[in-house]
Design brief:
Layout: E1 5-11, H1 25-28, H2 32-43, E2 47-53, H3 58-67, E3 71-74, H4 86-95, H5 105-112, H6 114-123, E4 131-134, E5 150-154, E6 168-169, H7 172-186, E7 190-194, E8 199-207, E9 211-213, E10 217-220, H8 234-238, H9 240-245, E11 249-252, H10 258-274, E12 280-287, E13 293-300, H11 309-316, H12 321-333
Parallel strand pairs: 1-2, 1-3
Antiparallel strand pairs: 4-7, 5-6, 5-7, 8-9, 8-10, 8-12, 10-11, 12-13
Helix pairs in contact: 2-12, 4-5
Length: 334
């Protein structure tokens, strides 16, 4: 690929430093993805300008005029503090005629809302756990078909924000308590879905129309205490000491039959198309004790830090980190 001017869009609080000297792993962790992407693009020879956004589009407009980017590399996951508003930034870029990496506005809207995405894929016969949505300031009333245990989380937040062992509840009293917790702490509607005991599997996909499906990875939680639920809590995702203490790792999924692998790939492809995902995405499943996969959620523009699950899956497929970034840029330019 020839040298390009790339505008790297990040949250204003996550603009990475040029030098990591003297910083420990915990200090680097919040902006590691931003640093890895910028460094990788520069290694490929591109001219990279980093722009931090928070709640105004004016800086983006000025950067487009001054820098005249060939492409915007989008690492924005929220705008004005709202996860559902990241699509507005992508829409603005498209209206400005700037190609942008990853998912378009329609796919972001469809996939960010966990209930909406579940309804769409369930209509097309993809297995989905029973669920119910509990809006803010509304009475918490569980539908009869939603049997315990259930897991309660934010309807729109991703990256396991607000999820803890207490998110799995076994009665109506605890359900109401946890729903109120989500309302107050996440400032969003809550979704409660049937808890599927089993394995957590991630399938990464790369492409627009023609898709590359990466080998399934598994969140290995076997090192957790015996009485702990095997779920991706906020501590599992972000607490480095907790990860080391319990040997929590993302590993290539083992002991899957050829039929299970083929089914996961087929379902992931279908979900990617149904939700109008583009560029790159990750589809999350739970596999129950009978070997049946259940769709949990789709993650447009998932974390692509050098050692996170998406880049790991790409590496297993023979795609280096720099080659992955190059492919993502090429998909945007197309």
């Amino acid at each position: 690929m020839k040298r390009r001017r790339i505008l790297l869009l990040v949250h204003a609080d996550l603009v990475p430093p040029h030098d990591l000297s003297g910083l420990d792993e915990a200090s680097i962790s919040p902006f590691k993805t931003e640093y890895d992407v910028r460094h990788g693009l520069e290694q490929l020879g591109h001219e990279v300008e980093v722009l931090g956004l928070r709640d105004e589009l004016a800086p983006l407009r000025r950067a487009i005029r001054a820098f005249e980017p060939h492409v915007a590399f989008n690492l924005i996951e929220e705008f004005r503090g709202e996860p559902l508003w990241d699509h507005a930034v992508v829409s603005y870029l498209q209206l400005s005629g700037v190609p942008v990496t990853g998912c378009g506005p329609r796919g972001l809207i469809l996939s960010r809302d966990k209930a909406l995405s579940k309804k769409i894929v369930h209509y097309h016969r993809v297995p989905v756990p029973h669920f119910a949505v509990f809006p803010i300031r509304k009475r918490v009333k569980r539908p009869a078909k939603l049997a315990f245990p259930v897991i309660v989380k934010s309807l729109v937040d991703d990256a396991s924000v607000g999820i803890a062992q207490a998110s799995i509840v076994y009665n109506d009293e605890k359900l109401e308590e946890r729903v109120r917790f989500v309302h107050e702490n996440n400032a969003s509607d809550a979704i409660a879905e049937q808890f599927i005991e089993g394995r957590e599997i991630y399938v990464g996909l790369l492409g627009n129309e023609r898709l590359t499906v990466f080998p399934p990875l598994e969140l290995d939680l076997s090192g957790l205490p015996q009485d702990a639920a095997r779920i991706a809590t906020e501590k599992v995702k972000f607490d480095l000491a907790y990860q080391d203490r319990h040997d929590i790792r993302i590993r290539r999924a083992k002991n899957l039959s050829d039929a299970q692998r083929a089914l996961l790939e087929r379902l992931a492809r279908r979900i990617y198309k149904l939700l109008d995902l583009k560029g790159y995405a990750r589809v999350d499943f739970r596999i129950d004790e009978h070997g049946k996969p259940w769709f949990l959620e789709a993650n447009p523009n998932p974390d692509i830090a050098h050692d996170e699950e998406f880049a790991t899956a790409a590496s297993i497929s023979g795609i280096s980190y720099e080659a992955l970034l190059s492919k993502i840029v090429s998909l945007a330019l197309r």
